[in-house]
Amino acid sequence: MKIWNTYTSIVKNNILLSSQENKDLKYWRDDMFSNTIIYIIPLSVIALIPSLIWAFEEKLYLMVIVDIFSVLLAIFTGIKKGIKIKQRKLLFIGTVYTLSSFLIYYVGLNSTLYLLAACFLATFIYTFKNQYAPALFNIYISIFYILLYYLEMTPPHNINFKSSELFAVFSNLIFLSFLVCSLVPKLFHGLDESFKNNIKHTKKIEKQNEVLKEITWIQSHVVRTPLSRLMAITNLLKENDNTEEEKTFLIDNIVVSSNELDQIIQEIVSKSEKIRSSEN
Predict the structure, then answer these.
(1) Count of Cβ atoms closer than 10 Å to residue 78 Cβ
(2) In the chain, count of helices (H) and strands (E)?
């Protein structure tokens, strides 16, 4: 457990360089990417070992290199310090697409699932200028594979299917890829609006709390000064031995203190109005 916590801490600290007080959608997408790297590195061993065994048995040494290199790049993406998160994401997406392409070439049509997974991951963790870019990548890879197939440049064990099967598999891949690229950005747009509204609401509440603190401070400290003075003057006026001059002086101070108290009350009312106006 300690090793796992240390490992996750290293990856998170490398990818999420700064924590945000108000976590917007970008932060959560970056956090999703960091979690993807955290889990994909140890879990990739599950796929790597049997894949290496198969590749060695089939004498597909290039596939061995690609498998190992892909895992090393995933580790590099998570462990290496000083890389911008945009570059980390592009490196990871490129690695996934490269591995998926080699798997389709050497393993066959069953591996188109990897291209769909690559499209899904790319759409989730990265914002492309063209939202359909991952689906377009899958089109290019599909066209390239079909050309290799018709030029008989694919491995012999990958030609044991009909052309109709080839087009059916890739057409479904392209359909699902465009579906992912269409729906996921809509989901993120809705979430982004929700995050922005929540952040706006949080800031409004924080501002209201600050004003309420000011009002509380004014009521407990600022109001107390003229009020205490008024109470003291009132007690002095109750005495019967005050001279006319003293009474005039005390009354003048009552007026001054009353004006001070009125200004303070107006300030409190003004701040209260700010709270009410911010709620509308």
Answers:
(1) 24
(2) 9, 0
148 with 105: CB under 8 angstroms? yes
Between CA 238 and CA 244 the distance in angstroms is 13
Q: What does DSSP assign to residue 81?
A: S
Per-residue pLDDT tens digits for 77-133? 888 888 888 889 999 999 999 999 998 888 877 788 889 999 998 998 888 888 899
Q: What is the dihedral of CA 21, 24, 125, 69, to 10 degrees?
A: -10
How many Cα atoms within 13 Å fall on the side-chain side of residue 189?
A: 7
Average pLDDT, the chain: 80
Enter the DSSP assignment of 190: H
Q: Is the pLDDT of residue 183 over 80?
A: yes
pLDDT of residue 23: 64
- Nearest residue to 195 via CA among 12, 19, 22: 22
Centre a 10 Å sphere on the Cβ of residue 65 and count the other Cβ atoms it contains. 12
Q: Look up residue 202 and give its amino acid.
A: T
Q: What is the DSSP code (8-state) at residue 222?
A: I
